[in-house]
Amino acid sequence: MKKNLKHPWAMKSAFLHSIRTTLILCFLIPVVFIVALGLIIYHQSSGNLIENYEASTITSMKMMSNYLDFGFQSVNSKGNILRSNADILNYYSGSYKDDPAVEYTTYKDMKKFISMNVFAEDYCKNILMFANYGDGITISGRTSVRGLYDNFSKTVLADKLKKSNSDHIWVGYHTDLDESMNTNSTKFSISNISYLYNASKEKVGYIVVDVSNKYIQDTLMEMGFDNGSIAGFISSDNKEIHQLFSGEGLSSDSSSSKDQTRSASFDFDFHFSDQEFYKESIKGNELIGYQYITYHNQDYLFIYNKLTSCDGTLCALIPKAKIIADAQSVKSTTSFIILIASTIAILTGTLVASGISKSIRSTNKVLASASVGDLTKVIHTNRKDEFLVLSKSINHMIASMMSLIRKMTGVSNHIFQSSEDVKQNTTLLLKSSENISVSLNEINHGIQVQAHDAEHCFQQMIGLSGEIKKIYQHANEIESISFTTQEVITQGIHIMDDLGAKTNNTSHITKEVISDITELEHLSLAIGSIISTIAEIAEQTNLLSLNASIEAARAGKSGLGFAVVAEEIGKLAAHSTDSVEQINKIITQIRMQTQKTVASAKKAANILGSQEQTFGSSFQVFYEINKHVENLNNNIHQISSYIANVESSKSNTLNAIDSISSTLQQTTAMTSELGNAASIQLNAVECLNKAAEQLAEESRDLQESVRVFKVIE
């Protein structure tokens, strides 16, 4: 017995595609929407809670900042009260220096006034007032530090106050005063330093009001931030007052500087002024702002508010986890509801799917038996739903299949016997068709060879016709060229006649030119003799001028005019001599050139004589060429006539060959059609034979297949 073994991945695939899995997934779809709805509600509530928390925190920060601003403005007001007090103005103006008793009484009144009107305020930790005259005043009593004004005037704080373009500044440290007064900067949070004036409104001293740490710490505690938060006040010179918020109550921290450490839940050496997010906020122009930052791998809300009254900053770090704590409760409730809904959906889907799966398994068992040929089994079910209808339909289908199998058994036997008869007949028909096809192929081959030979002959005749046509065309072209050549030669003969006449004229003219040039040479010789005579006259004139000059010299003063004439004649004779020499040179050049021209003319005359002889010979040659070309034209005309006759015979031959080729082609086509018909018949017979064999094989398979089914007899 064979075991039905399935691969693990096939079983897994079947489980994933089962109805049970599908139903469970369908029940989970609403659960998914519930989860999505819960997430949406959580994100919206979280966002709203965060926005409300941020708004309330900023409002609280503004209120505390306004409260601090009010206190710092009160400090400035107290300074103005001190500067406007008459006793203080007169005392530091030196109005009582001549009456020590009055001066001492005034000093006590000033101290009493300060204690009652300034120091009585909660924010005031200490007051120091000193000038370039008199004693300074503090809340502890009179001090005899006479050099305090001179020392402080040279400090950085005094220079800062001078450059501030104001009558006061706010600082977190006054180290120089602490050293002089033996005080500690940790006892106060921030100080207001302002000028002290005398009665003449001159700057004669300073007023220092220290604000207590308690005032700042109480303000920070009033913010009431969540546990794990830290709030701080930072002065312009980075002095910080911190307030930590913890679950065990508020943990206050006095002023902290960068050279101090403190024990706190936040960090031992934490300072806002060291953090980059604080530095960036200080650089900005916004007075109030917030951002989320990460400190020690935890997210915090950083809020700051710049105080305009003291150049300080109020800021805080609040854990983001505390901000979204209420949203976390919404998340927990939503998660619980989703878990319950998912559990109920899965259980309901499992129960429904189990009942459906049981019915389907029993149905599949019967169908599996039917698929292997066992039609004796039926489906039994107790369900009253659609599965009952399905079971009845399947049982009816199996019964119908049993009836069909019985009929198929009888039909298959009859088909098998008929297929054997068809197979024998088709075998005989196939052999006859093969013989007919072979004979037709041999006839078709012989006709194709004849058609090929006729076509080849026809193509050769066409080629020969083309060559004859080309020869005829070339003969016509040669005939035309010979006629053209004869006309050109006739024209050349006429041109040679004209050229001969013109050559004779040129020879005659050349002889006349030679005669004229020879005559010009004789005239040049005559001009030379005349120039020689002129030269002799000039020489005589020059001698005459010389003799006249000698005679004028002998005559003395009376011969001066004659001497001038003699000098001019001498110049004229010299000029004439020069001109004669130049003319001699020109005449000599003319004679030389004339002689060369005569020689060239004689050479031209000789050449013209030779040309006359050459023209005579050329004329005779052209005459002979003309005769030969005329004979050539006659011969070419006869050749063209012969070629025209050949062309006419060629057309008749081509028509005959074309008729033979067409007849062979028609015969070949008919034979090919007959062969194709025989091939088609052969193919049909082969197909019929194969179909008969296949029918016999399939009838045997049908018998075997029918035997597989088990039916009730």
TrEMBL record:
Transmembrane segments: 21-42
UniProt-listed SUPFAM superfamilies: Methyl-accepting chemotaxis protein (MCP) signaling domain
Record-annotated HAMP domain positions: 354-406
Claim: DNA repair is one of the keywords in the record: no
Keyword annotations of the record: Membrane, Transducer, Transmembrane, Transmembrane helix
InterPro entries reported for this sequence: Chemotax_Me-accpt_rcpt, HAMP_dom, MCPsignal_dom
Domain Methyl-accepting transducer: 425-661
Any Gene Ontology biological process: signal transduction
One Pfam family this sequence matches: MCPsignal
A GO molecular-function descriptor: transmembrane signaling receptor activity
PANTHER family for this protein: LYSOZYME-LIKE PROTEIN-RELATED, METHYL-ACCEPTING CHEMOTAXIS PROTEIN MCPB
Name recorded for this polypeptide: Methyl-accepting chemotaxis protein
Organism, as annotated: Anaerocolumna xylanovorans DSM 12503
